[in-house]
């Protein structure tokens, strides 16, 4: 029991590092971050102790014109006996006429804090391109002088940082995205994107039920200026070390920022499945169902992923699949 109090202490110390006055949510969201923490925390790089590549495609709010479509490709590996990790992230997010393309390189350094526990400090750096395709716009007044005359493109640097604590039964993390580059987008004639800082706080545990089934409860809190605090509460079951099956509830609340009650009311459920087809290949799927906003649309959101563990021949692999 003592080690669990230590785990919680480290987590709440991380929680205290978030400045409450530092907080429009524009970063794309994935439901399968549960299986690949690199998308929300650079300190996750190399956590699996072997090379890992994952591709994810998300089609959000199907049948809604201009709805988000997001593609990501991540890869990470560890070295120095697992005490260091490197990661690469590519992201393409299309919302109507607005497209964002980002590339990041991450590095994580690990400190062993106990027999089976580590604290990872990570940083990611790269660049983002923001693009508006004028040909996709359908203005009521095409002669309006305030409209774009052609497609708009802007580049901005980007940097993320994070902490990730984990043991064989518990994990907790905190991270911040879009730490630099906001001023590059602040132009009076181009309100393209605000590039605000995004904060992520997450924690979870693995609880054995019997020899063949384990339960993984977890949560994620997302905070950004001008938007309600978003939270996910997740419950996943692992069957015979091969099949993940579970669900996630997503909601909003006025935890830190004061946002409109209309935005505050949006909730959704996600149903997740991941299968280890082989010891190295994993396939994932998530279906998101809106519970109130946009509920009249025929279908909702679909997310597909494929992941592959890059294994050295003859190497003895320590493969933590839990977090």
Give a summary of the structure in a few sentences.
The chain has helices at 2-15, 261-264; strands at 51-59, 69-79, 84-95, 98-112, 118-132, 152-166, 170-177, 198-205, 207-208, 213-224, 229-239, 243-253, 268-276, 281-290, 301-310.
Describe the structure.
- There is one protein chain.
- Helices cover 6% and strands 49% of the residues.
- A 14-stranded antiparallel barrel has the order 1-2-3-4-5-6-7-8-10-11-12-13-14-15.
- It is mainly beta and 323 residues long.
- The protein has one domain: Porin.
- The protein has helices spanning 2-15, 261-264, and strands at 51-59, 69-79, 84-95, 98-112, 118-132, 152-166, 170-177, 198-205, 207-208, 213-224, 229-239, 243-253, 268-276, 281-290, 301-310.
List descriptors:
15 strands, 49% strand, 14-stranded antiparallel beta barrel, single chain, Porin, mainly beta, 323 residues
CATH architecture: Beta Barrel
Q: What is the distance, rounded to the nearest whole angstrom, between the alpha carbons of the first and last residues?
A: 21 Å
CATH fourth-tier homologous superfamily: monomeric porin ompg
The dominant shape is globular
Alpha-beta content class? mainly beta
H/E series: HEEEEEEEEEEEEHEEE
Main β-sheet description:
14 strands, antiparallel, barrel
- Sequence stretches where pLDDT stays below 50 over 5 or more residues: 1-25, 316-320
User: What is the name of the CATH topology?
Assistant: Porin
Which strand order do you get reading across the main beta sheet?
A: 1-2-3-4-5-6-7-8-10-11-12-13-14-15
Percent range of helical residues: under 10%
Radius of gyration: 20 Å
Arithmetic mean of pLDDT: 81
Percent of residues in beta strands?
over 45%
Number of domains in the coordinates? 1
CATH class category name = Mainly Beta
Keywords: Signal
Signal peptide: 1-24
Protein name: Bacteroidetes-specific putative membrane protein
Organism: Cecembia lonarensis (strain CCUG 58316 / KCTC 22772 / LW9)
């Amino acid at each position: 029991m003592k080690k669990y109090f230590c785990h919680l202490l480290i987590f709440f110390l991380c929680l205290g590092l978030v400045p409450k006055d530092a907080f429009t949510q524009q970063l794309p969201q994935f439901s399968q971050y549960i299986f690949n923490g690199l998308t929300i925390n650079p300190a996750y790089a190399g956590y699996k102790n072997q090379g890992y590549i994952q591709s994810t495609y998300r089609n959000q709010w199907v049948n809604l014109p201009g709805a988000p479509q997001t593609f990501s490709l991540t890869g990470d590996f560890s070295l120095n006996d697992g005490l260091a990790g490197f990661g690469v992230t590519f992201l393409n997010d299309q919302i109507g006429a607005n497209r964002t393309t980002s590339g990041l390189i991450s590095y994580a350094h690990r400190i062993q804090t106990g027999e089976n526990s580590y604290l990872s400090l990570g940083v990611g750096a790269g660049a983002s391109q923001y693009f508006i395709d004028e040909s996709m716009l359908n203005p009521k007044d095409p002669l309006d002088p305030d409209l774009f005359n052609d497609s708009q493109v802007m580049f901005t640097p980007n940097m993320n940082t994070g902490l990730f604590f984990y043991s064989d039964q518990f994990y907790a993390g905190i991270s911040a995205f879009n730490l630099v580059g906001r001023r590059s987008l602040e132009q009076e004639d181009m309100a393209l994107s605000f590039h605000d800082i995004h904060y992520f706080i997450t924690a979870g545990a693995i609880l054995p039920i019997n020899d063949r089934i384990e339960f993984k409860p977890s949560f994620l809190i997302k905070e950004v200026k001008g938007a309600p605090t978003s939270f996910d509460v997740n419950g996943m079951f692992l069957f015979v070390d091969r099949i993940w099956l579970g669900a996630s509830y997503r909601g909003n609340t006025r935890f830190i920022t004061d946002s409109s009650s209309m935005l505050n009311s949006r909730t959704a459920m996600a149903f997740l499945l991941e299968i280890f087809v082989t010891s190295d290949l994993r396939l994932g799927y998530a279906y998101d169902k809106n519970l109130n906003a946009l509920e009249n649309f025929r279908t909702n959101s679909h997310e597909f992923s494929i992941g592959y563990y890059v294994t050295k021949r003859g190497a003895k692999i320590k493969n933590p699949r839990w977090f």
